[in-house]
Design a protein that fits this description.
The complex is a heterotrimer.
Chain A: E1 11-21, E2 27-37, E3 41-45, H1 52-59, E4 67-72, E5 75-76, H2 82-87, E6 89-92, H3 104-108, H4 110-114, H5 119-132, H6 149-161, E7 167-171, H7 179-196, E8 199-204, H8 207-213, E9 216-221, E10 225-230, H9 232-237, H10 242-248, H11 252-256, E11 279-282, E12 288-292, H12 315-324, E13 329-333, E14 339-344, H13 345-363
Parallel strand pairs in A: 3-8, 3-9, 6-7, 7-8
Antiparallel strand pairs in A: 1-2, 1-4, 4-5, 9-10, 11-12, 13-14
Chain B: H1 2-7, H2 9-43, H3 48-60, H4 63-74, H5 81-105, H6 109-117, H7 122-152, H8 165-174, H9 177-205, H10 208-211
Chain C: H1 5-8, H2 21-53, H3 57-69, H4 72-83, H5 87-111, H6 115-123, H7 128-161, H8 171-180, H9 183-211, H10 214-217, H11 219-224
Helix pairs in contact in C: 2-5, 2-7, 3-5, 4-5, 5-7, 6-7, 7-9, 8-9
The chains are: A alpha/beta, B mainly alpha, C mainly alpha.
Chain lengths: 364, 215, 245
């Protein structure tokens, strides 16, 4: 797998032959070998009971491996006192685990207080973090019971970042909030990571979350085996086994299209659809209005174009448009909204097929 | 010990039956009084805090003091068993009102709404839906009240009416442990039996509260 | 009015006069405080240990019920008969009665803690004692405090009874009043000890508000919302009459 060949120039977290058997005999993780790249998000994903959380918790020694080693920047984590190690690693968990008896700001100041940072400085850092995770100043003196689920998770993230640790462990941090809030949290989390560049291990059971957030994705299967360790794209396009293919889901082919832009597509000129069986109606500025033609819609009332795409949109967007268009044709527009090209679904399928053949030619 | 028991069987039995009577009559009275009071505290939520606060103040009064304060207030004689019965009833009601109210409050509002939607009238709904669901909480309170009563009754012996408490005083006067031990053992046994009976009642009438796995 | 004669006689309120009401109150408070301190020093660490480790949990779970079912008068007389008259057997009996409520509620308080908070505390690098003092105890405090409150009621009440075996305090007025057939003395004792118990209970409630974080007492919620939600009425924040006297 990718890590084994040392593809990454600076590896921060290394799993070296790590196994974990619990006292009751359950084998949670078996001979885990992989590396989490510096400054990237590595997502551990898999069905429940696959050892992903155990693996995460071994990084800050909440669980001790039965055999094997875990290295951070080449240094065995057992060479350091567990409590000190944990203070240098941010930790975010599912229900946030905020301290109910402490205010939001006191919660965020937990680790700085532990390591003896000056109170004033810790407080001002905490206030900055509060803003950074998208919370208002007025939240500072509230207690966790007064927060919504989404706000609790934001405080949880701020608390983990308070001592500016290089490594962040996140155990299903967004899975307890509703889907809309989760989507917002994920997007903001990516924005935050864009600014911070932490090395992040992130556990989820949601493959969509893994694909959306991960720079690298480690798919675990029952018995604590690593089924595949790859980029999200590789996972969708070349699942290593039936298990991974099944886990990733039926529409993986379609979803993998979101990794490529439509820049390489060969389009037909707009003129090709100005006459004939399907006619694209444009307004005075050349912006698409709708489709007319025999059996489609009368000229007086053109059928909606069902959206347009721009040059840098993904192949997924183009394919979706070709499918939803009343005539099977996707329309590209420029920055002004003027139509500058079209692609028929037959042509799109042909080009996607060529792309697939080229790509598999490269990898084999 | 066996000598003491065999030669005093009648005294012990009389003390024991008086103890049972003094401890359990108040429990029955408290059930009758606290159910409507607790219901009112839920139905009219403004009454909740006044009722709970008055209860906790009454509950704070030491038992010996309450036994002795009641005669001038209700016009009984100092040595009347009524003082003990009324005082214990006050304690039990004070405890039970809150438990009944909290039990009824703990009923999931969606359940009562569902019952109303299916056509239950208020009274019918109270007896067939809310009370059964609140029963485990209320019975837990009843256990506490009953066990406490059994223990407090003996203090009444200082006023000459105290069931097994009489055995304690006898032992102290004679500097003799046997009656004291017999009294303590019987009192603890009585409490344990009453407690078990309530637990059995709860198992019999709220089978659903056990299948969840958490008692 | 003859009932109140003793209570209203200024001579019985003279400060520093032994046998007068103020001195008896001081005695009563002394016994109560002594018992609670000893009881708490035993019950809280044991409750913390059991709650923390889960070992011997049956002791903590059953202590409350067992303590309640012990007849207080019987226990006192038993110890006095066994050891002899004096302060030691009486205080020992009071301590025995004070321990169960504190032990049970400390245990329950620790068990009620959200494990996620403890996991987070450990994961952020707190050491075991730091977790105990900075997370577990503050979170368990509402229940620990209500256990102390129950124990206070129990001890004030039982200390009254202890006058029968020679202890001082307000119980003297009751016991001596009965013996001397002076009912106004009895009334004075009963009124003062009842007031003392109520005041101590209210004081304990106030102390509880003071030391328990609004984040765990439920006050933080009532502050922001006017409609009292169920979460805003937490068990143990106001006078749970859950333990026997």
């Amino acid at each position: 797998m990718a890590g084994a060949e040392g593809t990454w120039s600076a590896t921060l977290i290394t799993f070296d032959e790590v196994s974990k058997t619990f006292p009751d005999g359950t084998l949670a993780v078996e001979r885990l070998n992989f590396e989490l790249p510096t400054g990237k998000i590595t997502v551990f994903v898999g069905p429940s009971g696959c050892g992903k959380t155990t693996s995460l918790r071994m990084i800050n020694r909440m669980v001790e491996p039965s055999s094997g080693r875990i290295l951070i920047d080449g240094k065995d984590i057992t060479s350091q006192d567990a409590a000190l190690l944990r203070r240098s690693i941010g930790y975010v968990i599912q229900h946030a685990g905020l301290f109910p008896h402490r205010t939001v700001i006191e919660n965020i100041m937990t680790v700085p207080t532990l390591i003896g940072t000056d109170k004033k400085k810790a407080r001002s850092t905490a206030m900055e973090l509060l803003e950074r995770v998208g919370l208002n100043d007025s939240m500072a003196d509230k207690y966790p019971v007064q927060l919504s689920g989404g706000q609790e998770q934001r405080v949880g993230v701020a608390r983990a970042l308070a001592a500016d640790p290089p490594v962040l462990l996140m155990d299903e941090p967004f899975s307890a909030v509703d889907p809309i809030v989760r989507g917002g949290l994920q997007t903001e989390f990516l924005r935050l990571q864009g600014e911070l560049g932490k090395t992040i291990a992130f556990v989820t059971h949601d493959i969509d979350e893994a694909i959306k957030l991960g720079d690298m994705v480690a798919v675990f299967k029952e018995g604590g085996h690593l089924a595949q360790y790859a980029t999200p794209r590789e996972l969708l396009e070349n699942p290593a086994s039936d298990f991974v293919a099944e886990f990733v889901g039926r529409d993986r082919g379609f979803r993998s299209l979101s990794f490529d832009t439509s820049d390489g597509l060969v389009l037909d000129p707009v003129d090709s659809v100005r006459a004939g069986s399907e006619v694209l109606v444009l307004d005075d500025a050349g912006r698409p209005v709708g489709w007319t033609g025999p059996g489609i819609a009368p000229e007086s009332n053109p059928a909606s174009v069902a959206g347009t795409f721009k040059a840098h949109d993904s192949l997924r967007v183009v394919t979706d448009l070709a499918i939803t268009s009343p005539v099977g044709i996707a329309i590209r527009v420029d920055e002004n909204g003027t139509a500058d090209g079209v692609i028929r679904h037959q042509s799109l399928v042909r080009q996607l097929d060529e792309r697939r053949r080229q790509r598999s030619g490269v990898t084999t | 010990m066996i000598d003491y028991i065999s030669s005093n069987t009648e005294v012990i039995w009389r003390a024991f039956s008086e103890h049972v009577f003094l401890a359990l009559i108040p429990v029955l009275l408290a059930i009758v009084i606290s159910l409507p009071l607790g219901y009112l505290a839920v139905r009219y939520s403004k009454l909740y805090y006044p009722l709970v606060n008055v209860s906790s103040i009454l509950y704070a009064i030491p038992s010996l003091a309450l036994f002795l304060l009641l005669p001038p207030i209700i016009g009984t004689r100092v040595l009347s068993p009524l003082n003990i019965i009324i005082a214990l009833t006050i304690y039990s009601v004070a405890l039970m009102v809150r438990v009944v109210a909290d039990g009824l409050n703990s009923v999931d509002p969606t359940v009562t709404q569902a019952a109303t939607a299916m056509g239950y009238r208020r009274i019918k709904r109270l007896f067939s839906v809310e009370l059964p669901i609140a029963l485990p909480v209320m019975l837990a309170g009843l256990r506490v009240a009953t066990v406490a009563n059994v223990s407090i009754v003996s203090v009444g012996a200082l006023l000459g009416v105290g069931g097994l408490g009489a055995l304690f005083l006898r032992g102290l006067q004679l500097d003799y442990l046997d009656p004291i031990i017999v009294g303590i053992v019987l009192s603890v046994l009585l409490a344990a039996v009453c407690d078990s009976v309530i637990v059995l009642v709860q198992r019999r009438f709220t089978p659903w509260s056990r299948v969840g796995g958490r008692a | 009015m003859e009932y109140l004669e003793f209570l209203l006689d200024p001579a019985n309120w003279e400060l520093g006069q032994s046998g007068a009401i103020p001195a008896l109150v001081v005695d009563h408070l002394f016994y109560t405080a002594l018992t609670l301190v000893i009881g708490a020093l035993i019950a809280i660490p044991v409750g913390l240990y059991i709650g923390h480790t889960g070992r011997f949990a049956f002791v903590a779970i059953n202590a409350g019920n067992a303590g309640r079912s012990l007849p207080t008068l019987g226990l006192i007389i038993f110890l006095v008969t066994l050891i002899g008259f004096g302060l030691v057997p009486v205080i020992a009996a009071l301590v025995v009665l004070a321990i169960p409520p504190i032990l049970t509620s400390t245990y329950a308080g620790l068990r009620a803690i959200d494990p996620a908070s403890v996991d987070a505390a450990k994961g952020m690098g707190m050491r075991p004692l730091q977790i105990m003092f900075r997370v577990e105890i503050p979170m368990a405090l509402p229940l620990i405090m209500s256990g102390l409150r129950s124990a206070t009621l129990q001890v004030v009440s039982t200390a009254t009874v202890c006058a029968y075996v020679g202890l001082g305090g307000l119980g003297r007025l009751l016991i001596d009043g009965i013996a001397l057939n002076q009912y106004d003395r009895v009334v004075a004792g009963a009124v003062v000890v009842a007031l003392l118990a109520i005041i101590l209970d209210l004081g304990a409630a106030a102390l509880q508000r003071l030391v328990v974080s609004p984040g765990v007492s439920g006050r933080a919620l009532t502050r922001t919302s006017n409609t009292p939600s169920k979460r805003a009425v937490p068990a143990g924040s106001d006078a749970p009459p859950s333990e026997a006297r």
